[in-house]
Design brief:
Its cofactor is K(+). Residues 79-104, 305-335 are annotated as: Disordered. Belongs to the pyruvate kinase family. One of its GO terms (molecular function) is potassium ion binding. 32% of the residues lie in helices and 23% in strands. The protein is an alpha+beta fold. It has 5 domains: 3-195, no CATH class; 199-312 and 335-339; 355-430 and 667-843, TIM Barrel; 445-557, no CATH class; 567-659, PK beta-barrel domain-like (M1 Pyruvate Kinase, Domain 3, Beta Barrel). The strands form 10 sheets. It has a 9-stranded antiparallel beta sheet with strand order 4-5-6-3-2-1-9-7-8, covered by helices on one side. An 8-stranded parallel barrel has the order 12-13-14-36-37-38-39-40, surrounded by 6 helices. It has a 7-stranded mixed β-barrel with strand order 18-19-25-24-20-21-22. Helix 17 packs parallel to helix 19. The radius of gyration is 40 Å and the shape is globular. The two termini are 39 Å apart.
Length: 856
């Protein structure tokens, strides 16, 4: 006795199964009994049906049946496919049930196959003989894709045919036998119902209608939200009107909890509404249309299963229903069209290119670089930044002055034109940010340090450029440090390669340089020398150059920059914040090491002394140092340090941020200095960034300043740095859209993490990106991106991941550092790779790299 799995493909049901035991097929369909006598090439065979059981003798059969009266019943023994198999008419006719439409099926005995594989095959390809009863050639059967068939069935279009990719092998009795291990699966699946019951169809329809109702509720809620904010919407510039509407729709959409709806849609194989930011209502309407089509198809299917040939006419609508329908049509015709999928993404791309500039080949995310002060004088640095991948140059108005800014702008414009690479210029207004005041200056000394191995042996000499002040080294060789000298004209003519430069360093130790190269061209009044010992050179130090002929030349070191001092703070130390302008100084100790007076530094915002309270936390340098206010006076705030790293402590320098997260400190977006800087910015910048935006009033103040100067073409970048700014982001964007100026948002994560807490940073930055995308506003991913690489030359693994996450924004910003060129080049490489795998928040499913090496 043999057993086999039987699949019953159907145009309405994906797959139905039964088992063959001996020569009997147990079917779940209970219809009237009838039998057929037929012949094969080897022996006569018979097929009988009695009360739902097929009796096919001793061998497996390939059967096609038809319920239509008078239709041929074609049977063939499963074997070598002999051409002598014959077609005969059924001796008994099947009675008609309901309508006389043909419902064709093929029963196929499949051996050596698991139920899952058979069901998959049955659900993927439908034999044409199932659909077209006149197609009766088994040997040259054609197949139709099930998904295409179901779609065309609803649309009542002609079905496209395609041949089966591989020929179906003939079944033999040996193929019918299956292992005992598979019998359990066969028996398990044999209990599956083979017909779609009316109760399950009703439940399916109910589920579809419930999903449609929920989506309709979301749509109506979004439209009501838009109407509620219609006064603000009327003020929006026509250039931003569609984006403002979509922003309101998305905010209304996100005000609802749709987590359960998302799961139900995803489990049904539909979009879960993730990624609808740029086209919110279009996404909702699209899914609703799909669900309505499924509901209509389900009702048609249920009618076919119930034997109905024609749909029942609907009763005529009542007078009130007609009036409501007319009103709905008028409202629909008068409503502004929602932003489509293509339009939503296109508008965001257009706004990004208009504000930030075109994307370079190979990546879509641009790179913004904060220029150091040296960029005003260093042509080589600026040129190399262009080559490394810089697209936007950022100048911080909190540092330097208009004279230095002007030099930076000239160099950026010059190299942009010279290299044929577009580079926008962005200015950051300082804003009302609290900062530490300047520190006491340190000594004017320069440290020269060669590279040593773990044994203290010199493996690479320090390269020193010695030249008159303002003379830059020639291209092709980058020195480790530069030493300015005061010398007589043409002093380098007396120096030869191999001469020795001797001097006494700041510690009184004898040191020497070896001349290895002389300058040429514009750099001919300078020399390259190598140093193999650690040296400290002070301003005015005398350098004695000895030649091979015994002649000596003396030159003096020029003015060296003062070393920036810092206050070292450890846990439990005291720090005094002062209202008056003083130079910051470390704590003073007596001979026994006891503190005589604590460290002190100026706080740049005097308002904090009027509102700060004991017990409130204080953060310094973007949260690197933490403390608690111990006492407050009109001119001083005493802070006890509670977090300063390990026993070595942390260094606090001048111009570092101070945050009071729990203090009721309301600051206006523009300061007097900002208003003065705007005069320079509007004539030199492509965009300006406004710091510490807490509400629409801050943006309105900037718009008024720009309007007075007629600067409607300059872009406005809103920096979101506080929790209050995040909470008011939608209204801030609506205010920014009231003028023609282009709008962008910078996610300033440094102060945001301090103000809102580290734990919430990931959540807040993602929500800012989504809200801005719904408003078609480009975003800038900023603060501490590849900071370790820019400062030390070696990134952490977390920094690489964070930089890759920045590809979700339209731009990523890097801060300055000694290794900024390496940081820009690395970020360019990371973003180029991410462009192949990610499009905003959605993954792009290209083939896996090195798939052939995965061992599969």
């Amino acid at each position: 006795m043999s057993r086999a799995l039987v699949t019953q493909s159907s145009s309405l049901c994906r797959g139905q199964m039964g088992t063959v035991t001996g020569a009997k097929f147990v079917s779940s369909e209970a219809t009237s009994s009838y039998s057929v006598l037929f012949h094969t090439a080897t022996e006569p065979r018979s097929l009988s049906r009695h009360h739902g059981q097929w009796d096919c003798g001793s061998g497996p059969l390939l059967i096609r049946k038809s319920k239509k009266i008078g239709r041929k019943l074609i049977c063939r023994a499963a074997g070598n496919g002999s051409s002598s198999d014959r077609k005969i008419k059924s001796k008994t006719k099947t009675p008609a049930h309901g309508n006389e439409n043909t419902t064709s099926r093929r029963l196929q005995v499949v051996g050596n196959a698991t139920p899952t594989a058979v069901m998959s095959a049955a659900g993927t390809l439908i034999p044409l003989s199932i659909i077209d009863s006149d197609h009766e050639d088994f040997d040259d059967d054609k197949y139709v894709d099930a998904n295409i068939f179901n779609q065309l069935l609803m649309e009542k279009k002609k079905i496209t045919r395609k041949k089966k990719a591989t020929s179906r092998p003939a079944e033999t009795e040996g193929e019918i036998s299956i292992t005992a291990k598979s019998l359990h699966s066969v028996e398990k699946y044999s209990d599956t119902p083979t017909t779609l019951s009316s109760s399950s169809a009703a439940n399916y329809d109910s589920t579809l209608m419930d999903l449609i109702d929920q989506l309709e509720g979301i749509r109506l809620h979004a439209l009501a939200f838009e109407r509620w904010y219609s006064p603000q919407l009327k003020k929006v510039h026509r250039k931003h009107y569609d984006s403002a509407r979509n922003l309101l729709h998305y905010v209304a959409f996100r005000s609802l909890d749709i987590a359960n709806l998302q799961e139900r849609l995803a489990s049904s194989g539909l979009s879960s509404l993730e990624g609808c930011e740029a086209h919110t209502l279009a996404s909702v309407n699209s899914i609703s249309s799909i669900l309505r089509s499924l509901l209509q198809g389900s009702q048609i299917q249920s009618s076919c299963l119930d034997g109905e040939t024609e749909s029942k006419p609907l009763p005529p609508p009542s007078i009130s229903e007609r009036q409501n329908s007319d009103r709905s049509k008028k409202a629909e015709n008068s409503r502004v069209d929602d932003i489509s999928f293509e339009a939503g993404n296109s508008i965001l791309s257009q706004h990004s290119e208009a504000l930030l500039g075109p994307s370079p080949p190979g990546r879509k995310t641009l790179i913004m670089v904060t220029l150091p002060s040296e960029a005003a004088e260093d042509d080589v640095l600026v040129r190399n930044l262009f080559k490394a991948g810089m697209n936007i140059a950022r100048i911080n108005c909190a540092h330097d002055n208009p004279e230095v800014w002007k030099k930076m702008v000239r160099k950026i414009r010059f190299f942009s034109q010279l290299l044929g690479t577009e580079c926008r210029i962005s200015f950051d207004l300082a804003g009302p940010k609290l900062r530490t005041g300047p520190m006491q200056p340190g000594p004017s000394v320069l440290k020269i340090k060669p590279v040593k191995n773990d044994l203290g042996q010199v493996v690479s000499s320090a390269c020193v450029w010695i030249a008159e002040e303002g003379v830059k080294p020639p291209e092709g060789r980058i020195p480790d440090t530069c030493v300015p000298v005061v010398a007589t004209p043409h002093w380098t003519k007396k120096i030869q390669i191999g001469d020795v430069v001797r001097f006494k360093d700041a510690r009184g130790r004898s040191r020497e340089f070896n001349v290895v190269q002389k300058g040429s061209g514009a750099s001919k009044v300078g020399i390259f020398a190598e140093c193999r010992s650690v040296s400290y050179i002070e301003t005015g130090c005398e350098l004695v150059i000895s030649g091979h002929g015994g002649k000596k030349l003396k030159v003096n070191v020029g003015q060296l920059p003062e070393i920036e001092q810092a206050i070292v703070l450890r846990t439990a130390d005291k720090l005094v914040l002062k209202r008056e302008s003083i130079l910051g100084s470390p704590a003073k100790l007596d001979k026994a090491g006891n503190v005589v007076s604590p460290a002190s530094v100026t706080c740049t915002l005097g308002k904090i002394f009027d509102i700060a309270k004991p017990g409130e936390p204080v953060k310094f340098d973007d949260g690197k140092i933490g403390g608690v206010i111990s006492s407050v006076s009109p001119d001083e705030i005493y802070v006890t340090i509670t977090d300063a790293g390990d026993h070595k402590g942390k260094k606090l320098k001048g111009e570092k941020a101070i945050n009071f997260p729990q203090s009721d400190l309301s600051m206006n977006g523009l300061t007097i200095k900002d208003a003065e800087d705007i005069d320079f910015v509007v004539s030199n910048a492509d965009m300006l960034a406004l710091s510490f935006v807490n509400g629409p009033a801050d943006v309105r103040a900037l718009q008024d300043e720009l309007a007075r100067r007629g600067a409607e073409n300059i872009g406005i970048v809103v920096k979101i740095e506080t929790e209050l700014g995040f909470q008011r982001l939608p209204t801030i964007l609506l205010q920014a859209m009231e003028t023609k100026n282009l709008v962008g948002v910078m996610v300033a994560r440094g102060d945001m993490a301090v103000e809102c807490g580290w734990q919430r940073l990931a959540e807040l930055q993602d929500q800012i990106l989504l809200i801005c995308e719904s408003a078609h506003v480009p975003t800038i991913w900023a603060t501490q991106v590849l900071e370790g690489l820019a400062k030390s030359g070696l990134p952490s693994r977390a920094e690489i991941t964070d930089a890759a996450s920045g590809s979700r924004a339209e731009c990523v910003m890097l801060n300055k550092g000694p290794y900024i060129l390496q940081a820009v080049a690395s970020l360019d490489d990371i973003l180029c790779r991410e462009a192949c795998h990610r499009r905003k928040h959605q993954a792009v499913l290209h083939p896996l790299q090195n798939f052939e090496k995965l061992g599969m």
